Amino acid sequence: MNIQAMQQRFARIKNRTAFFIQRRSDSQRLDSLGAILGLVLLVLIFSFLSPPFRQPSNLALLGKSAAMTIGIVAVGQTVVLISGGIDLSVSSVIAVTGLITAWLMKFGFGPIPPLEGRWCYLAIAVGWLTGLLIGAAQGWLITRRQMPAFIVTLGTMVGLRGLAVAISNSAPINALPDEFKWFSDGHIGLIPAPILIMLFVYLFTAYMLHNTKTGRYCYAIGGNETAARLAGIAVDRYRIQFYAFSGLLAALTGTILISYIDAATYNNGDGFQFNSVAAAIIGGTSLTGGVGGIWGTLIGALILAVIPNDMIMLYAPSWWRDIITGGVILLAVFIDVNRQHARKKSIRMETIQPVSGGNYLYELLGKLSQKIEKHTGTSLCRMYLVDRETGDLVLQEMLPLDKNSTDPPMLQGKSKIVSDAKESGSVILIQDLSRTGYQRVVPMRPQVQSALALPLLNQEHCIGVIELQSPGVGVFKDATIETLKAVTEPMIVNLEDAWLFESGWLVRQVREALRHLWDDLHLGRMALADWALSDQDFRHDRTTGARGEALRNLLVQAIDDLGPQEEHDPVHGARSYRVLQLTYIKEQAIDQIIRVLHISRRQYFYDLKDSIEILTDMLVRDHCSGASGPQKTFNPREKRLIR
User: Fold this and answer.
1) HSE-CB of 61 using CA atoms within 13 angstroms
2) What's the Cα-to-Cα distance from 602 to each of 504, 569, 591, rounded to whole Å?
């Protein structure tokens, strides 16, 4: 790939992810402003109750306290939350990495003598590397092994805390070298070193989130993982990086802590996992991902540092500090839940840019666009398809098949009538936008006067919505709606199948079904059973076990049908049949299969992936065989998703 092609590819990805950045910008500013006002209010109240609170020395101590506690670790937590995850292990990572660093400084390791003097920085580097590897390992378990982030990080937190007790033998490791004490006691001018370190971390992370590909992908992955994968983003790789970054910052916090207290203990960082999440939420980061910012997290960390500081000055009991801190956390979660409900009122819609060259889904969309223009007289058309996993409406670009045609209408924005049509399952028609207001419609062209949203229903569920607009008043009549239904109904099954295939949903479902091929109850509960058995009596009228048995028979028959189709590609066809038969029907071990087929382990996984796609292709063709409208064979080797 030459440099120009790489630049063009990056520009396409940048445009696709720009939607997520634009969507979060306004709400993020409002959330940060609310956090700032809350901090100012707390400072004013505590300054009135305790005059020493507003002394410059106390304010400097406040910033230093934030840096040495949750200020830095909350940055990594924010990045993970924005990407749609959570990291509850940061407190134990702080303890373990601090103990490893202190142990190497004080006792060395095996033949390695104690790392004193300037060698103490080697011990610090080992601690940081340990934190980074712990975070990366968690990211790998979450992404590659499909384990829940909450369970992985919670288990790591508990396990590492036990490891910390074992390393320290429940006793602190103190009397550490003085050479690294500048992490907590140093100054540059009048500014303490912890504050400078914290500001550097915030500036670096803010630049990364707002000015780099990694930051844009972080918001895109958290906003809609399915759309991010369709856009060609390596979701798993970037999520591993985000967890590794969180582990690294937790290790940095552990270094500052042991420098400040001159000791490493097994309970260092206790409670930081919840406070770091609270700081991020207070600053406007959403627990569901896709929304948030670093500077809001800084305000949240300062708020959580102000409360215990002033409680000490007021000589208040320690339990008051916990009560107030808990109340602030509950208030932050309450606000975040309200923000989520507000966002759900306008369903997220992401734009997928089509690639050139005959992709079946976009051929269908192009033909549908031409038919709609021919029968309704309007070219202002937007098409949305429903993501089966998230329920989101994904905005498609309906390119005309004639490449000399005029440019398609603008696709930016979203109309409320589209989400209303999806939720209600009925047509939404606005004959005169000047009377009802434009708050429900995003115009595709200036001076649009009327709009229509038609849900596409298949087996009583909505697979998408078509939106039409016109510059004329009262253009859309009942006859227009009936014509639009007549045009779209013959293509609904094909359109849904093409979308499910191209989006990867069907391939994932088939792979999951093959893994549980002999578990009828699991198969009967799968969404694939509803899709594959939609034309049979098994969908609703039979037991779960019967549905599972029918789905299993369908999959086994499809695998058997691969054998007679070898004339098209005899070598690959035969291997696909053998790979699927040996793996899922005979359930042989991988080592045995590669010996039988005389292939490498790596080639086996490549063949298995291709074989599942070919099997899915067969299932789709069989499913479409009874539907009218355009038919075409899917070829997984020609399938071109956005990459």
Assistant:
1) 13
2) 22, 21, 11
Instruction: Give the β-pairing of 393-396 and 173-174.
Output: unpaired
Query: What's the domain count of the chain?
Result: 3
537 within a domain of the structure (yes/no): yes
Distance from C-alpha of 302 to C-alpha of 595, rounded to nearest angstrom? 61
pLDDT tens digits, one per residue of 417-437: 888 888 888 998 888 887 765
**Which residue would you say has higher pLDDT here, 349 or 493?**
493
For residue 642, being part of any structural domain is answered with: no
Kindly state whether residues 294 and 196 are assigned to the same domain: yes
Whole-structure pTM value: 0.56
Residue 195 lies in a domain: yes
Helices (H), 56-119: 56-66, 73-82, 90-106
| Reported confidence tier of residue 149, pLDDT bands at 50, 70, 90 | very high
264 and 164 in one domain? yes
For 476, the domain range is 349-491
8 A C-beta contact, residue 193 and residue 183: yes
Could you tell me the strand order of the sheet in which 393-396 lies? Answer: 349-352, 393-396, 381-386, 461-470, 450-458, 428-430
Q: How many CB atoms lie within 10 A of CB 553?
A: 10
To the nearest whole percent, how much of the chain has pLDDT over 90? 29
In the beta sheet, which residues pair with residue 173?
264
SS3 251: helix
Instruction: Count other Cβ atoms within 10 Å, centred on residue 333.
Output: 15
CA 458/CA 456 separation, integer angstroms: 7
Give the whole-angstrom CA distance, residue 221 versus residue 610. 26
242 lies in the same domain as 379: no
Helix (H, G, I), strand (E, B) or coil at 80: helix
Longest dimension (CA), the chain: 88
Assign residue 430 the CATH number of its domain: 3.30.450.40
- Residue 631 placed within a domain: no
